[in-house]
Design goal:
Blueprint lengths: L2 H9 L1 H25 L17 E6 L9 H15 L4 E5 L6 H9 L3 E2 L4 H10 L4 E7 H15 L4 E5 L4 H12 L2 H20 L2 E4 L2 H10 L5 E3 L19 E4 L5 H21 L5 E4 L5 H8 L4 E5 L5 H6 L2 E4 L9 H8 L4 E3 L1 H4 L11 E2 L3 H13 L1 H18 L2 H11 L4
Parallel strand pairs: 1-2, 1-4, 2-3, 4-5, 5-6, 6-7, 8-9, 8-11, 9-10, 11-12, 12-13
Length: 417
């Protein structure tokens, strides 16, 4: 531990944040200086050609895996839109090189993958800084250090901070739900960090009107627009008679999903099974903690599927989708996915926040365990209600989360080609 960080820890969280930020900033300046002087000897990334012309750089915390989480699915859709707009696109995962499948997926879209060590990537960006038209920096974890780096390296480039969702809002709500002092401190730190990024970026993206309105209060001078999730609703899906059971989908590396399943098993499912003793609950998603998996598998009528590469068969089989989220932020991909595939849902108010969905018109909403269970039973047994919600939900996805809407906003956010 360096003396700077040690002293910062003793002074408290805000001092720690300033100390770490100072070290990062000095380190970035040093790396850039070495790059300019030729001290970084690694060759540029061979996977990216040197004659792209003006291009857009996209940086995310990790390489997208759209079959595993909704943030990755949104990222792949954004990359596809950038290519449709005619931009050469270079993608860089802040977590390293990703796996071959992730890189091949992007290459198939016409996206160039910038790989290699940090020094190698910096060297390539330094060499091509004059052609960098814009950089889209997703999530504060990556944007926090890449935004100042690129501002120093390519001051003429347009820098866009894509929050994906406001992380501090999710952390703050989790702290409120759990009464965690440590979580509250983390939320405050993240809030300062995200506010600073919105101020320093040339433009910002959020996924809902709720978060846009909140930022207008917190950062009134920031230029922020909405680029939400992007869905392609299916035209035809199985109807009510051939379906049965309940479906929850979520990646368990995301804390709100773990809490949701805990609540579902403890306070919702017993009420449902008292009315529908033969119903099956399908839990889908990778990374479920072992203790939660053991708890779920010990209950009758619960099937733990883990990661499912092809979700469509389960979406077509289940009769009711579930989103029992008690905290979170942003627009929930599980809700988009379910409604776009003709599967009506029961959800909490947090789960449908920012989606302009109406209770009993496109979705059923409940916030306590007994009411949530009653809505599940109602939707599972009422064919007319089920069909109305299925039709309206799919129509709503097409009207509010279309590719065309997102494409026009993305085009306006970027400089002229």
């Amino acid at each position: 531990m360096t003396p700077t960080v040690f002293m910062a820890i003793r002074r408290g969280p805000s001092s720690l944040h300033r100390g770490v930020s100072s070290l990062i900033h000095r380190g970035l300046r040093g790396t850039l200086a070495r790059t300019r002087s030729g001290a970084v000897s690694e060759s540029p990334a061979a996977a990216v050609p040197g004659n792209l012309g003006r291009f857009v750089l996209v940086v995310d915390t990790q390489w997208p895996q759209p079959e595993r989480d909704s943030g990755s699915l949104r990222m792949v859709q954004l990359l596809r839109l950038l290519r449709e707009l005619g931009w050469p696109v270079v993608f860089m995962g802040d977590d390293g090189d990703g796996d071959a499948a992730a890189r091949e997926r992007l290459t198939a879209l016409g996206v160039h993958c910038l790989t290699g060590s940090r020094g190698r990537r910096l060297a390539w960006l330094q060499e091509h800084r004059d052609d960098l038209a814009a950089a889209i920096l997703s999530r504060h974890h990556a944007a926090g250090h890449w935004l100042p780096t690129l501002r120093l390296m390519a001051p003429a480039a347009r820098l866009i901070f894509d929050s994906v969702d406001l992380h501090f809002l999710r952390e703050q709500r989790e702290a409120d739900a759990n009464g965690s002092f440590a979580q509250r401190l983390l939320a405050r730190w993240t809030r300062r960090r995200e506010r600073r990024l919105f101020r320093r970026a040339d433009h910002g993206w959020v996924v809902s009107q709720v978060e846009q309105a909140l930022l207008r209060q917190l950062v009134p001078d920031a230029d922020v627009t909405i680029v939400s999730n992007i869905v392609d609703p299916r035209d035809s899906t199985p109807g009510f008679p051939g379906r049965n059971g309940l479906l929850f989908v979520g990646a368990y590396g995301h804390r709100p999903n773990v809490d949701a399943v805990e609540w579902l098993l403890a306070e919702i499912l017993p009420h449902v099974q008292a009315r529908l003793p033969q119903v099956t609950l399908h839990l889908v998603g990778g990374g479920m903690p072992q203790w939660l998996q053991q708890r779920a598998q010990a209950l009758p009528g619960v099937r733990v599927h883990g990661h499912v590469p092809e979700l469509e068969p389960l979406l077509d089989q289940a009769r009711v989708g579930l989103a029992p989220l008690r905290f979170g932020a942003g627009v929930k991909g599980k809700v988009n996915q379910s409604l776009a595939n003709g599967l009506p849902m029961v959800a909490t108010r947090v789960a449908v926040e920012g989606m302009t969905l109406r209770d009993a018109t496109e979705i059923l909403v409940a916030d306590d365990g007994a009411s949530f269970a009653a809505q599940i039973v109602r939707l599972h047994e009422d064919a007319a209600l089920w069909q109305r919600l299925a039709d309206n939900g799919r129509r709503h996805m097409r009207a509010h989360f279309s590719r065309e809407q997102a494409k026009s906003v993305v085009a306006r956010s970027l400089p002229s080609a």
